[in-house]
Amino acid sequence: MKSIIAALILCCCIITVSQAQNKLTLVPSSATFVVKYAGENFTKNISVKKIDSYGFIKDEFFKLLHLDKRTSLQNTGINFEQDSYQYVVMQDTCINLVSLLNIKNEAQFLKLIKDNYNHTATIIKKDGYNIIPVSNTSFIGWSKNMAVIVNSTYQNRKYYYNNDITIDTGMVEIYTDTAVAIVPDTTMSAEETEAKEQEEQRIRDSIYNFKWELWEQQQDMIAKKQQQATAEKIIQNSFAGNVKSIANDVGYQKIIDPTAHVSTWFNTESIFNQYMNYFNRGTYGVVNSVTSPLYEQTDGFNTAVNIYFDKDKLRMEQKTFSANDSLNKLSLAVMNNKQSNSLINFVNPGNIGYLSMSINTEAMANYYYPLLKSYLGRSSYMNDYADLIDVYIDLVQIIIDEKGIAELLPGNYMFVMHDMKAKMVDYTDYEYDEEYNRKEVKKTKKELSPDFTFAFESNRTDFLERIAHLPLKYAEKEHFDYKQKDGYYVLTFDSGKYPISSLYFMVKDGKAVITTSNAVINMVKNNTAFTTDEETKKAILANNYSMQLNSTKLIEKLQTQISTDVNMKVSDYLKQNLGDVKMESRIKDGMIQGTTTLNIKGKHNNSLEFFFNMIDGVNSIIEKDRQDKEKKLN
User: Is 256:303 a contact under the CB 8 Å cutoff?
Assistant: First the structure.
């Protein structure tokens, strides 16, 4: 089924319900994850014909699907110019990934299925639609206008080692007792006794393996039956329109932009419960029964990412909101803070990147208590002890001094990567002679030495000063070079052994500074600052989170570590086409909102085409390198 999943990934990147029925009405309110792909991607940004022209589509994607290179995406029967949806839902003990596609040519679509996925599967005729199982986990239902693809994974699989398991499946009961009665024989020699014991152990192993295989076959049959029943039910409800849609849920409407080229939505609470149950059962098998989602639809946070393929950049708008008013107020309280000008002073012109964070630490501490009660109290293995958990967490809240924590760390932080420079460092390698005797060899290599600063504010600089001073007492005894100098501390590393030569610590004027730069320490001592540009200042002060990354400069620094021609060519291509990355987040319209942008360079009509061009360009470089190497070998 790998090929059909890969097909869905591309289809969902190139598919899209403007003139047809709005497929959102077929997405249930119980969905934990929803993705919409807009047809506008192709009517305005890139055409299916253009996608057909990319070499990697023909060479890699079609190969994965076992399609002839002469096949065209335009002949798959799928309408790529109308919106499509994918969603994840937990139903009838199965986690289901459901795709809703528009069909423009039923015959072409059926040919695509039969030619590539299952030649022998029987088509199940239904009232107004058909179903075909293409594997034990994947099922396709379609009509003249629509296709519903369900990938279903059974979650209630029992484990052979669990002796408490009893299932009424109508099959012969399987016993797990593999004991074989042994009657001692005192007339045999030691060699004969050992041989007999080995044979009896082989019999025991064979019986055990046989029973284990039967057990696994039984579980496979149960899973297959449940997966098909669940998939058929989802397909039936989709074609009948018998779905309580998420379209009317305020948690969806409030944060999804219908004009976005791609939008993703997920419910944090339900996904957490769903996949914690999956992890516990799938990995350890410690849960004896599948728990249905233990949440109300208004609980937890809903998060959406609306993606726009603009001409000169990729733009992602993120929104987080809870219909639970108390939770929403707690989250907004966490963002009730503002970055200080004194930390902006560490952002130097020409830096590689920075990350500014400003939160309310006391509100953050209080925010976690109700979340812990919710997650722990509703987890499948603790929900019977919810009252006990509430009391325990209340006790923790009484013991922990949130105000004291907030005094130590109010919540303003700044990290700046000033620069990265290549530095020669020593290392030990090992060589072996013909007798495999190991010999140590001292060598040198070039590594990047980061020049960075991490600074944060504190109202308890006295305590931080004690922490910074404490290593002086143990430096000589523990053999590390840590010294106190003029108002600061320095940890010096062995010359040539590490990329970083020194790490400086300083506590002054309500802030702590950790840096690799002596110039930054002198700047703090002298109460001077870097000249930060106004645009950067504005971005930091207006947002709780602000991040910028100079992609070109970062790639240039990383290129000093590249040793092969093909990797250098790939990095050159990325440097010519990737622009800077910027991220901002703050409170807006009563919710947490953020924007992330990836600027693009080079000759691209828009950022969607940029992604296809980039994949094709990198693949072409790698393929040419492979062909050149083959020519040299021949």
Answer: no
How far apart CA 436 and CA 309 sit, in angstroms, is 58
- Cα–Cα distances in angstroms (integers) from residue 518 to residues 351, 413, 489, 491, 495, in the given order: 16, 20, 11, 12, 16
Kind and range of the H or E element at 484? strand 481-484
Q: What is the Cα–Cα distance from 390 to 361, expressed in whole angstroms?
A: 22
Q: What is the pTM of this model?
A: 0.82
Cα separation, 421 vs 186, in Å, equals 79
Q: Which of 251-255, 271-275, 442-446, 515-519 has the highest mean pLDDT?
A: 515-519
Question: Residues near 116 by Cβ (< 8 Å), separated by ≥ 6?
Answer: 3, 65, 66, 67
Where in 41-144 does DSSP place strands (E)? 84-91, 94-102, 124-125, 130-133, 138-142
Between CA 401 and CA 604 the distance in angstroms is: 55
Say how far apart CA 14 and CA 48 lie, in whole Å: 7
DSSP string, 601-623: -SS-SSHHHHHHHHHHHHHHHHH
| Whether the Cβ atoms of residue 448 and residue 500 lie closer than 8 Å to each other | no
Q: How many angstroms separate the Cα of 269 from the Cα of each of 276, 318, 326?
A: 11, 17, 15
One-character DSSP codes across 274-317: HHHHHHIIIII---SSPPPP---TTSS-EEEEEEEE-SSEEEEE
Nearest Cα neighbor of 503 from 451, 434, 578 is 451
d(CA 244, CA 322): 20
pLDDT of 80 higher than 60: yes
Q: Specify whether the CB–CB gap between 366 and 398 falls below 8 A.
A: no
Q: Could you write out the DSSP letters of every residue in 527-577?
A: T------HHHHHHHHT-SEEEEE-HHHHHHHHGGG--SHHHHHHHHHHHHH
Kindly report, residue by residue over 119-170, the tens digit of the pLDDT. 677 889 999 999 999 889 999 999 999 999 999 999 888 877 654 444 444 4
3-state DSSP call for residue 378?
Answer: helix
What is each CA distance from 368 to 311, 372, 402, 410, 606, in whole angstroms?
Answer: 41, 6, 11, 16, 42
Residue type present at position 237? N
Alpha-carbon gap, residue 598 to 51, rounded angstroms: 22
Closest to 140 measured CA to CA, from 157, 161, 159, 118: 118
Query: Phi/psi of residue 54, each to 5°?
Result: -75, 135
Model confidence pLDDT, tens digit, residues 253-307 = 999 999 999 999 998 766 655 555 555 554 434 333 334 443 444 457 899 999 9
Q: What is the amino acid identity at position 110?
A: L
Give strand pairing partners of 319.
304, 593
Calculate the average pLDDT of the chain: 84
What is the rounded CA–CA span in Å between residue 270 and residue 303? 12
Identity of the residue numbered 328: N
Residue of 225 and 74 predicted with greater confidence: 225
Specify whether the CB–CB gap between 598 and 313 falls below 8 A: yes
Tokens 């096949």, residue located = 71
